Amino acid sequence: MNPKYTIDTEENKKFMKALTEDLLRFGHRFPSPCGSSYYLGDDGTPWTERPRETWITCRMAHVYSIGSLLSHEGSEALVDAALKGLSGELHDTENGGWYPGVTEENKILPNKQCYAHAFVILAATSAVLAKRPGAEKLLSEALALYDLRFWNEEEGLACDTWNTEFTELDSYRGLNANMHTVEAFLAAADVTGEEKYRIRAGRIIDRVIGWAKDNDWRIPEHFTSEWVADLECNKEKPADPFKPYGATPGHGIEWGRLITQWALSTYKEEKDRAASYIEAAQKLFNRAVEDAWNADGAPGIAYTTDWNGTPVVHDRMHWTLAEAINTSAVLYRVTGKGQYGKLYSEFMEYLDEKVLDHKNGSWFHQLDEKNEVIGTVWPGKSDIYHALQATLIPYHRVDVSIAVSVKMNRK
Question: What are the φ/ψ torsions at residue 113 (nearest 5 degrees)?
């Protein structure tokens, strides 16, 4: 294998560092005048006609907080712009919490999403580490609001969507928001020292492992209000960007990394207790790769499969590859198994040959089953969050959140 794609070679480290800088340069034009994030086009030009969404604004605050910790020029001003948006036009001063976004005409998008609020927590934790003004206040408010509106202590899970006024709770329950809640809670525990958030992350993880184990390690994504799996949800709209039908292999892969991080951070001195979770993480990753990687005659990871592991939506999403790079590296470090190092190399080669935009920068966000760039689900390049993390996680500590690990490396 080309050393450029092989983990722990100097060539791969150099390649990853170049990718990091390329991504950070690419995203500079995201802030709107009020701070909320524009959706970026293929060459990084803002698509101003699209809504300026909270989850994208949070992701950009997060990545440029990391950029600040990496001494990337201009990062501090970009974080501050995003925080301005989160404390300003995206914030609901009347009902609390954050709107999903605002339109080109500055009209508020309705409802309150758990998904977006989890990213507010993540953004705030990273901004605290970067010592940006207002970050600690944002984090305190985000955690308090999340505790009040989204976390269900009895169930050990988070609900999904309220109306704007927080008076009506939608009956849908989903694991995508809970997955990013785990990410946010782990960051919150690392940054604040409040271990209750790590404990909560573990409660979510236990539920997810149970559902996956009962379903041949393919994770049900959609549930009723009683947390009964709805395996037929969106069968008529299988490529939905947030609620696709069937199993989402990329999520199985991403859960594998988060479970590993949680287990190692929770059971620091109890390797036997961590081992069962790391075994579950491997089963999730292995199942997803077996089902979706190179599954249809061409390289790439299929977006979704049915409940027997047959690809349904064959398109390749950049975020799935990013998480595959992350988790293969993490499992290689934790288990020492060569299969994960080999897969890492395969993913890196595919990234370089098919997914990197060598002309405009950043990564193509969607390709079809022939690896031609398309934009039916994810046109343009909305943000750099998944891609940037994938250039960093393979060479940072596996038991702490990435922004924390980056800051540790500075010392």
Answer: -105, 130
